Amino acid sequence: MMLKNIERFIVLTILVLFMSTAQAMYFEVSEFEEDLADFTADREFVQDSQERVCAALKIDENLPYDISIEETVYETKNIDGYNYLFFSISEPHLTVLAEGFDPLSLSPPDHSEFITGKVYYLAIEAQEKVDVNFNIDPDDTEVIIDGLPWAGERIIPGEYTIELIRPGYEERSETIALDQPEHTFTYQMNPMTFYVSISTEPADAEVYIDGMHWQAETGVLEPGSYIVHVTKEGYQDIEDMIEIVDNDVAFTYTLIPE
């Protein structure tokens, strides 16, 4: 049991890191395009490791947070109120980083690749994520948001598909809209039920399940363990434990005369 809990903790930790749960903010791109009037990258002639002229990412120096990129920066220059980050045109995309923010991935605008000697202007705005709370009965129900397990992290505003999953209960799926600073969602999960058929020989034997009289040959039960008691005067009683897991089941009991 301890090993299983450790494995579950490791998996959840990996998922939390993957989904950047520690970050409360994200960047919204208001502009990312080639600056056709800016020839700084061509003029400065910064070269990458293969001696190709770099392109440059141009960012306003007055942003209230330090911006960097995950990719190799061959030189950084501050010119006329802008920071220029010179990068290799071999990069398929750029990943913008700032403390407290989700990484922002940028693909080349209007082209399949970045172009040598070009300047790409980036304007971004800081946005806060949404606090989301789920009150679910049972409280160990798993929450899946857009196909990924949710581990309590804040979420970027928008529409999402959620799935609620717990063994023994009907799965639920719906679309939620996150457009406020905080949202709380409350759900009551419905237990699954399965058809249970119990036949006896003789056919008029009395059947009890967990002490309750089983009125018909076929009924429904929720998943779990049950004690079946079969009795008829002049015959030996039968007592059996049955398990209802995830499908319809049928049982037959043959009584033995005393």
Q: What does this protein look like?
A:
The protein is mainly beta. It folds into three domains: 19-128, no CATH class; 131-188, Immunoglobulins (Immunoglobulin-like), CATH 2.60.40.10; 194-254, Carboxypeptidase-like, regulatory domain (Immunoglobulin-like), CATH 2.60.40.1120. The protein is 9% helix and 47% strand. It is built from two helices and 21 strands. The chain has helices spanning 2-18, 40-44, and strands at 25-34, 55-60, 68-69, 75-79, 82-87, 94-97, 104-106, 119-128, 131-137, 142-145, 148-149, 158-165, 172-178, 182-188, 194-201, 206-209, 212-213, 218-221, 224-231, 238-244, 249-254. The chain has a five-stranded mixed beta sheet with strand order 1-8-2-5-4. Strands 11-10-12-13 form a four-stranded antiparallel beta sheet, with no helix packed on it. Strand 19 (224-231) and strand 20 (238-244) form a beta hairpin. It is rod-shaped, with a radius of gyration of 31 Å.
Summarize the structure.
Helix content is 9%, strand content 47%. The protein is mainly beta and 258 residues long. The longest helix is centred in the first third of the chain and has 17 residues, at 2-18.
